[in-house]
Amino acid sequence: MTSLGNILEKAIHRLSAVGCDTPRLDAEVLLAHNLGRERTWLYLHPSDSLDENQEKQFEELLHRREQREPVAYIIGHKEFFGLEFQVNPHVLIPRPDTELLVETAIKWSIINNQLSIVNRKFTIVDVGTGSGCIAVALAKHTPDLSIIAVDTSPEALRLARLNAEQHAVADRITFLSGDLLELLLEPVDLIVSNPPYVSQPELAAAMPEVSKYEPRLALDGGPDGLEVIRRLLSQAREKLARGGSLLVEIGSGQGQVVFQLAHSYFPKADIQIKQDLAGLDRLLVVQM
Ligand code: GLN
């Protein structure tokens, strides 16, 4: 019988051999998932062993990871903003980078509620909601916002709704299937989006986890990465209420060009580019 400790060491070795970035973490997460345990449980039981069935199942998980399938798709969930989200290959895996957008949107809603003379509900739209992680995190942290979550993919919308139900905020989010802001009937107070912004050459050179497994629809921003951002800014001119704001996640090399672009669409607005925790340009903020 091989011990869990040994099984882990072998798995780590195999994952580093194929170029996984975080072989120990991945092996531990997969093994813990296989056993239906927390990762910390493994540290307390290094000499336990797997039965035949568990061994076979772990081999399958490990094999998938060796093909560079992302851990989140293998185990079916990912943590974002302190909340657990179901994910599948129809949606982008939530990334910590995107928490900046959520934090900024929460601050926006607190400030605007304080400033608001009339006590009315603000409306936010989350464009390209994917797993719903942004819309759900916002709904969880801002009780007085009404949220519209839009996506072109029906599979993504189905999952976003499921995530909203699991976090008990489905009654506060309206799900819309459509292209960007096209189907919005009335202007909204805040537009948030993590649109596809990776350029096609960058996407071709991305890690297999991204290029082979994540949905192209959620990543591909055309030849220069800005195609969807351009369309979004253009549509936003008619869909943003007076005094409204727009928050759009961008690539780390896009700060300057997106700033110029936003200025050309909104010459009178206050425009900023915010940096993420790594100090990289990550968020376009347009305030009307
Ligand atoms: N940050 C993601 C990546 O680099 C891209 C996300 C997106 O295009 N919205 O993989």
End-to-end span in angstroms?
Answer: 66 Å
Helix residue percentage? 40-55%
Beta-strand fraction estimate: 15-25%
Strand order of the largest sheet: 5-4-3-6-7-9-8
Question: What is the number of helical segments per DSSP (H or I, 4+ residues)?
Answer: 12
Give the distinct bound molecules: glutamine
Which structural class best describes the helix and strand composition? alpha/beta
Number of domains: 2
What's the overall geometry?
elongated
Q: What is the CATH topology classification name of the largest domain?
A: Rossmann fold
Oligomer: single chain
Q: Sketch the topology as an H/E string, one letter per element.
A: HHHHHEEHEHEHEEHHHEHEE
Note down, in words, how this protein is organized.
The protein has 288 residues and is an alpha/beta fold. It folds into 2 domains: 4-67, Helicase, Ruva Protein, domain 3; 79-287, 3-Layer(aba) Sandwich (Rossmann fold), CATH 3.40.50. The chain is 43% helix and 19% strand. The chain has 12 helices and 9 strands. A hairpin with a 5-residue loop joins strand 8 and strand 9 (281-287). The longest helix has 17 residues, at 99-115. It starts with a helix and ends with a strand. The mean pLDDT is 95. Glutamine is lined by residues 95, 97, 194-198, 210, 219, 249.
